[in-house]
Amino acid sequence: MKITIVTTFGDQHYNMYAKNFMSSLKKYLDPEINVLIYTDKKYFENTDTWKNYILEDECPELIKFKNRNKHRVIENKTKGWIYDAVRFSHKSYCIVDAAKKTQQGRLIWLDADTEIIAPLTKQYLNSKQNPNTFVSYLGRIDRYSETGFISWNMTIPYAADYFKKWQHYYDTDLIYHLNAQLDCHVFDAVTHEFFRTHNLVPENISPPKVNKDHFDKAFKGVMYHYKGDDKEDVNTNFKRRQYRSKKEKLKNENNSNRT
Fold it and tell me: Which 3-state string (H, E, C) describes the chain?
C-alpha cells in the first residue's frame, strides 16, 4: 500500500526544530514513501516522491478563516493556547488538502517537531495500523488525543467525507462550539461522529496505562517527539538524547554478551 507522510511548519520554526526533522527524514525514510510538506516559502525542489507546497497558495480557505477570526487571537491570549484555533488551523488545512491530493493508500501526519532516529520503513509504519482500520492515533486517558502522529487508510469509502467534515469545522467556525480549539479537538469530534454514523472504530496505538510521552513510548527507538521546552533547544536535547541512546545500546550489548 502506498504511504504518504504530510507535515507543515512556519519559517520561524525551521531553525528551532524543523531542520532536524527534515534532515532526519531524508536520512532514515524509506525512499518508497512519499512526502508532502507545506511551508511559507520553498525549502526544496519537488521530486517524484517529495513535494513542497506553499500552504496559503494551496489552502485559500485557511486565509479566510484566519482573517475572519483574527479578533479571537487577542481574546485567546488571556484564555490560553488551547483556545487558539487560528494558530493550529494551519495543521488542519494542511491535513485536509493532503487528503485531497492523496486519495489512496495510507496518509500519515507527523508533527515537524519530530525527529527520526532509526530507519523508518513501510513495514514499520504498516505495523502501526490494522489494514481494515480507517484511522490509528495516540489516545490519552481522560484527555483529548495526541495528534503528533495520525494514520488514515484512504481506501475506506467514506474517507473523503471525513476530511470534508474536518474542514467544515473551520469553514463554518463550528470549531468555536467545541470545548477547546486545538486540531486535536476537531480530530476527536469528527472521529467520534464517524464512529456513530459509519461505525468507524479508531485504533488507539498508545501503549496501555501510559499517561504521558505517548508518542515516544509508542515509537521508541525509531522516532522522538520534542514537546514543550524541549523545542527551545532541540540541538542540545538531541545530543543529550543521542548520548543516552548510545549508552543504553552499549548496556544491552554487554548484557547480551554475558548470556
Answer: CCEEEEEECCHHHHHHHHHHHHHHHHHHECCCCEEEEEECCCCCCCCCCEEEEEHHHHCHHHHHHHHHCHHHHHHHHHHCHHHCHHHHHHHHHHHHHHHHHHCCCEEEEECCCEEECCCECHHHHHCCCCCCCCEEEECCCCCCCEEEEEEEECCCCCHHHHHHHHHHHHHCCHHHHCCCCCHHHHHHHHHHHHHHHHCCCCEECCCCCCCCCHHHHHCCCCEEECCHHHHHHHHHHHHHHHHHHHHHHHHHHHHHHHC
**Residue 178: pLDDT above 50?**
yes
Residue 253 has pLDDT above 60, yes or no: no
Topology at the third CATH level for domain 3-226: Spore Coat Polysaccharide Biosynthesis Protein SpsA; Chain A (3.90.550)
What was the pLDDT predicted at 255? 52
Domain boundaries defined on the chain: 3-226, 229-259
CB contact set of 244 (below 8 Å; sequence gap of 6+) = none
